[in-house]
Amino acid sequence: MLFLCFSAIFVCLGFAAKGQVEFKEQVVVEQVLENCKSACILSRPIRDAKQKVTVEMMIRLVEIIDGDPKLGEFTLRLAEDYSWIDSRLSWPDSDVDMISLPDKYIWIPDIKPNNCRISYDSYSAAYRSHPAKIKRNGSVHWSKYRLMKVKCKFDRSKPVLTNMYACTIIYYSSIWNANQLDVTSMTNSITKHVDYVENSFWNLKKLGAKIIHYRDKCCKDLFVLINVTFHFTHASYFV
Ligand SMILES: *[C@@H]1O[C@H](CO)[C@@H](O)[C@H](O)[C@H]1NC(C)=O
Ligand SMILES: *[C@@H]1O[C@H](CO)[C@@H](O)[C@H](O)[C@H]1NC(C)=O
């Protein structure tokens, strides 16, 4: 009888303690969502409008899906990785190191390819971007996947089997100039990435990326372009 009484007290105490447990990650997510509402999502993460946001970018070629070598047109699946700091998304609770939020809840840099046709048809919305990973100090990491058709350069006088195809994709920001949104630390000349899917027809030979700053003739604004060039050959070409 005594034992039962004690048990009952313990059960009650147990429930009381449980009621006080905070779901810390949830608390942090609520706090971040509360701090970053629509104006935060629509504006750059800088205090002074004259400052620029610096974004690190990396492009990965995931797959050469198919291609028409006579036209030099290929369908590629590319992943873009971006990192930047948005201190509006930071939090003080050191028990939570990282949270993950769908990209619609945060500001994201509007960097896009401008010289390819983007085909989304066969991929669901969820596939197109990963949720952003946010660290306690507001550092954000976000990846975007795209499926695109790109026109490549090749030597029309040579047969397909001995041709080298050079496919260039130019990324840029359609909204911000380089004094407002700049790109740095583009990882250069990655050959094959870990998640690269081998293709039995096409061999990736080289991958190069360059960040180009240029002044536009009309307005003297500084712009940033990211030139990503892949080279590939037909798989039967062993030179
Ligand atoms: C933010 O924190 C991460 C580790 O959680 C660290 O790698 C990164 O350098 C920090 N960034 C800044 C700007 O302090
Ligand atoms: C992009 O880089 C490739 C390879 O270096 C080069 O051939 C091409 O002219 C560049 N395009 C632009 C627009 O910068």
UniProtKB/TrEMBL annotation:
Signal peptide start and end residues: 1-16
Keyword Plastid: no
Pfam families documented for this protein: Neur_chan_LBD (PF02931)
Domain of life: Eukaryota
Keywords, alphabetical: Signal
GO molecular function: extracellular ligand-gated monoatomic ion channel activity
Span of domain Neurotransmitter-gated ion-channel ligand-binding: 42-232
Cellular-component GO terms for this entry: membrane
Record InterPro entries: Neur_chan_lig-bd (IPR006202), Neur_chan_lig-bd_sf (IPR036734)
The protein's name in its UniProt record: DgyrCDS2260
